[in-house]
Write a structure and sequence with these properties.
The complex is a heterodimer of chains A (337) and B (411). Chain A folds into two domains: 2-200, Thiamin diphosphate (ThDP)-binding fold, Pyr/PP domains (Rossmann fold), CATH 3.40.50.970; 213-336, Rossmann fold (3-Layer(aba) Sandwich), CATH 3.40.50.920. In chain A, helix 1 packs parallel to helix 7, helix 3 (60-73) packs parallel to helix 4 (91-98) and helix 9 (257-267) packs across helix 10. Chain A has 337 residues and is α/β, with parallel strands linked by helices. Chain A contains twelve helices and 14 strands. The radius of gyration of chain A is 19 Å and the shape is globular. Chain B folds into two domains: 42-380, Rossmann fold (3-Layer(aba) Sandwich); 386-411, no CATH class. Chain B is globular. Chain B has a five-stranded parallel sheet with strand order 1-2-3-7-6, with helices on both faces. The termini of chain B are far apart. Classes of the chains: A alpha/beta (337), B alpha/beta (411). The interface between A and B is large, with 46 and 45 residues.
Chain lengths: 337, 411
């Protein structure tokens, strides 16, 4: 066991896979010599050489397209898109190609690849370094979309993603890279050193894709969340002093509906929290699923707290970011209904 | 003199009811463009990218250095090329009729372009991978792909290796070096670069061949592929089939003021050749040379195959609405079958009688397989596949939500 940041845990996952599988390659903008703008691949090129870890031109569709060709050949590329906001030029390659190679060729060709991308706001990134495009991936048949919220899960899930036989969109909440974030944006940040999930085993282990995690047990209301919002939910629960059950979904597709059902059937109330824009967001999907699966157990209308339907603003970031106060209000509303 | 900025909107030299006019096309003399060294660089290769490599003269004689390069190619191999092209033509003819009879929804011919894929594929080895467009069925013919599988795909019936997943002509045949065709244009070009990088990284000794039409060279994936091929130098041949038309869009709309598509590759530092794609001997010579060069590690190479799309874009297209009706007959580089026929006859190795006999033999072969496959279902004789196959192969392991949906479908 070692205490790691999420960045170190992700790097460790790639290190483990580069060492144990010669078909794994890592590439993207700035990921080679420099080690990535967030330093996730730092030192890997020096250790494994530039045939395994290398820089690419600034062209996301080329990164995805090359990875698809390599994956179809039988390699296991794990590539980085510098910010999730930059993935749009690659959207054709990801959604029409990577997602469908297995299906359309009736499994003659497959596409075992991982596309890592930092997601979400809270770092004063403005509208092109803060978005949360997960719903644009969960809407696509053939992709898996995951989003870990701590170093332990990050390493285990990245190893699982690299070993997965299908393309995995691996979203990394960049606000959590260096520590959990409970909504205090005054400048004091906490590290992973004091958090139990900052303890990361050495070597190989996996956290299975498709399994949610109950990170706080409770009886009165279920909070469905993922990424940075898991900690915002924790802060809100503390503030509101409500016995809430917090579920970190971790994997959006496949979705662990069983864990969600068990919880909502117990609590009878449900609040969905995500940072992405509201309309057609993944929260809409969650609410529809919960309504279908748990309607007769519900004691109050389902609530959702999300980013506003506006581009992510720079100066007004903290008015956009769904902080603990907004989540608390939703919890109170769910309890009072 | 002052000038007002004005836009240009490229137009073809002739529209319907006008006389076909290819006087704007500059054509090198057969044998005039030589053979570069394997190690030639883009900057020194202007003549190869702007000229036109040709082997057969108007009388069907093989002339020049490229003819010399393939003097060991046997007459049997050339007759095989004739057989491949005529087989393709027979399939096209049969499928156009079948589509008109309502037996399938859609078909795409490659009339006039047969030499390119048929000749190229015969130079590849097993394990090499093509990343084709929808107009390279000839690669399958050159790879001896079973006609049963080919027709099964075209009819989306139980003999379809893809079990009805794809539009007719979007084949996939891994064992025959044929990557699954997307339908979204251009995407395969950069994927071929990725595949060839894997060839180099794994040291498997194989190469990749990317294919794109002149129209789709406008797509970002074309430029991504040229750039990445230039950066990483993988063993890939970047083929551009310039057949003058992208549905109704004249090639000038993709080319702009560029002189040739091959010269575009030179801009990325990739050496390029421009070849008469209707000259089977030129196709064989250049392909043989290119495959050997690529396998020996000289890096990427672009080839512009200069040809003419003689047929409609697809069965949903009416070329009479945008180009002169008989434009194909005026194509200055002729028809690939007629030209190879003339060459073989000039060698004393072929005759009109043998040609007619071969055409009849191939039509019989093709028709008999087609009928056998049609018995397994067509659109007028529907024998539906289980619709549940749509849930198979979305993922390696079917996730719970798809299991629920399959159940909801009633399966």
């Amino acid at each position: 066991m070692a205490n790691m940041t999420m960045i170190e845990a992700l790097r460790d996952a790639m290190d483990v896979k580069l060492a144990d599988d010669p078909s794994v390659v890592v590439f993207g903008q700035d990921v080679g010599y420099f080690g990535g703008v967030f330093r996730c691949t730092s030192g890997l090129q020096a250790k494994y050489g530039n045939e395994r870890v290398f820089d690419t031109p600034i062209n996301e569709s080329a990164i995805a397209g090359m990875a698809i060709g390599m994956a179809a050949h039988g390699m296991r590329p794990c590539v980085e898109v510098q910010f999730a906001d930059y993935m749009f030029p690659a959207y054709d390659q990801i959604t029409q190609e990577a997602a469908r190679i297995r299906f359309r060729s009736n499994e003659q060709f497959t596409c075992p690849m991982v596309i890592r991308m930092p997601t979400g706001g809270g770092i004063f990134g403005g509208q092109t370094h803060s978005q949360s495009p997960e719903a644009l991936f969960t809407h696509v048949a053939g992709l898996k979309t995951v989003i870990p919220s701590n170093p332990y899960d990050a390493k285990g899930m990245l190893i699982a993603a690299i070993e997965d036989p299908d393309p995995v969109i691996f979203l990394e909440p960049k606000r959590l890279y260096n520590g959990p974030f409970y909504g205090d944006h005054s400048g004091k940040s906490l590290g992973w050193g004091q958090h139990p999930d900052g303890e990361v085993p050495e070597g190989h282990y996996t956290v299975p894709i498709g399994k949610a995690k109950v990170c706080r047990e409770g009886n009165d209301v279920t909070i469905l969340s993922y990424g940075t919002m898991v900690y915002i939910a924790e802060a809100a629960v503390k503030q509101a002093n409500i016995d809430a059950e917090i579920i970190d979904l971790r994997s959006l597709l496949p979705l662990d509906l069983e864990t969600i059902k068990q919880s909502v059937e117990k609590t009878g109330r449900c609040v969905v929290v995500h940072e992405a824009t509201r309309t057609s967001g993944f929260g809409a999907e969650l609410i529809a699923e919960v309504q279908e699966a748990c309607f007769w157990h519900l004691k109050s209308p389902l609530e959702r707290v999300t980013g506003w339907d506006a581009p992510y603003p720079h100066a007004a970031e903290w008015d956009y970011f769904p902080g603990p106060d907004r989540v608390e209000r939703a919890l109170v509303k769910a309890m009072e209904a | 003199m002052t000038q007002t900025p004005k836009l240009t909107f490229p137009e073809p030299p002739a529209r319907p009811d006008e006389v076909p006019d290819f006087s704007n096309i500059k054509i090198s003399e057969p044998g005039a463009v030589g053979i570069p060294d394997f190690g030639f660089e883009a900057k020194d290769g202007r003549e190869y990218a702007n000229g036109l490599i040709r082997v057969m003269d108007k009388d069907g004689n093989a002339v020049g250095p490229w003819a010399e390069l393939i003097k060991d190619v046997s007459v049997d191999d050339l007759r095989q090329g004739m057989r491949d092209m005529l087989k393709m033509r027979a399939i096209d003819r049969r499928m156009i009729t079948a589509q008109r009879q309502g037996k399938t929804s859609f078909y795409m011919q490659c009339t006039g372009e047969e030499a390119i894929g048929c000749g190229f594929q015969r130079q590849l080895d097993k394990g090499d991978m093509n990343f084709p467009t929808y107009r390279q069925q000839t690669l399958l013919i050159g790879a001896d792909y079973p006609l049963r599988d080919l027709f099964g795909q075209l009819y989306s019936n139980e003999l379809d290796p893809m079990e009805g997943r794809q539009l007719p002509v979007l084949h996939s045949a891994r064992d025959y070096g044929f990557f699954t065709i997307s339908g979204n244009l251009g995407t395969q070009y950069i994927q071929a670069v990725g595949w060839s990088m894997a060839n180099a990284l794994t040291g498997d000794g194989k190469i990749a061949a990317a294919w794109i039409g002149d129209g789709a060279t406008a797509s970002n994936d074309f430029h991504s592929a040229l750039l990445c091929a230039s950066v990483y130098q993988p063993p890939v041949i970047l083929n551009i089939v310039n057949n003058q038309w992208a549905i109704s869009t004249y090639t000038g709309v993709a080319a702009g003021k560029s002189r040739t598509y091959a010269s575009r590759a030179r801009g990325y530092g990739i050496p390029a050749l421009r070849v008469d794609g209707n000259d089977y001997l030129a196709v064989v010579a250049v392909s043989k040379w290119a495959v050997e060069r690529t396998r020996k590690g000289y890096g990427p190479l672009a080839i512009e195959w200069f040809t003419y799309r003689a047929a409609a874009h697809s069965t949903s297209d009416d070329p009479g609405a945008y180009r002169p009706k008989d434009e194909a007959l005026s194509w200055p580089l002729g028809d690939p079958v007629e030209r190879l026929k003339k060459h073989l006859i000039s060698l004393g190795e072929w005759s009109e009688e043998r040609h007619i006999q071969l055409e009849a033999e191939l039509l019989d072969e093709v028709t008999s397989v087609q009928k056998e496959v049609e018995a397994h279902g067509t659109l007028v004789n529907e024998q539906r596949l289980s619709p549940t196959v749509m849930f198979k192969g979305v993922y390696a392991d079917m996730p719970e939500h798809l299991k629920r949906q399959r159940q909801e479908m009633g399966a």
